[in-house]
């Protein structure tokens, strides 16, 4: 089960988030409900339920949707959703507090504390770029951001999804060919805070960052290329993104 930016549930969720940013919660909720109705697998249902939950005005309804999202997250039980568990349990605890059940609130708060966001992902890992590199080269922090030219990055970013790295390569600045390298972290790494629980719940893109170099150990040439019109939409989203980059 892999996150796919071309997936229709993902597209509907992005449209819903755009409505939220425009201050149109009712339109956003309609899109999220449409995503839920069109969801067919556990990851799609987890994502859609997460967004439907936050638009519920009734606490009992919100709790029901949160528990639905939790059910699918536990069923998936992989690195794409584990980082969402603390916030899910914490939000469920708040609902139980409002409903006058301190026992259940305490239990869910304890579960929220028990889970942490330290990645357990074993890879393989990939880095997408337009740079011409060789096996054995090191990718190091300190380069300018692809998304904010004046910002030098304190971390080097990578993903466990080859198609995600391919998208990053397509969006990267430069005139070179799109390249996706297989990389190994040389030090500790963490979930990328710019995407984890910022857009989609958890870390469905399995995106990470490290302050230590990445060693190139190989290259892949086979990944799903996005259609030009879809790629242009991603460029427009990035151009219109006013959010601060967590560096």
Chain-wise SSE layout:
Blueprint: H1 8-21, H2 25-38, H3 42-53, H4 59-76, H5 85-98, H6 102-114, E1 125-129, E2 138-139, E3 156-159, H7 162-171, E4 179-185, E5 190-191, E6 207-210, E7 214-220, H8 228-240
Antiparallel strand pairs: 1-4, 2-7, 3-6, 4-7, 5-6
Brief rundown of the structure:
With 247 residues, this protein is α+β, with helices and mostly antiparallel strands.
What does this protein structure show overall?
With 247 residues, this protein is an alpha+beta fold. It has 2 domains: 8-114, Tetratricopeptide repeat domain (Serine Threonine Protein Phosphatase 5, Tetratricopeptide repeat, Alpha Horseshoe), CATH 1.25.40.10; 125-240, Rifampin ADP-ribosyltransferase domain (ADP-ribosylation fold, Alpha-Beta Barrel). It is 44% helix and 13% strand. The chain has 8 helices and 7 strands. It has helices spanning 8-21, 25-38, 42-53, 59-76, 85-98, 102-114, 162-171, 228-240; strands at 125-129, 138-139, 156-159, 179-185, 190-191, 207-210, 214-220. The strands form 2 sheets. The protein has a 4-stranded antiparallel sheet. It has a 3-stranded antiparallel sheet with strand order 3-6-5. Helix 1 (8-21) runs antiparallel to helix 2 (25-38). It is globular, with a radius of gyration of 19 Å. The two termini are 29 Å apart.
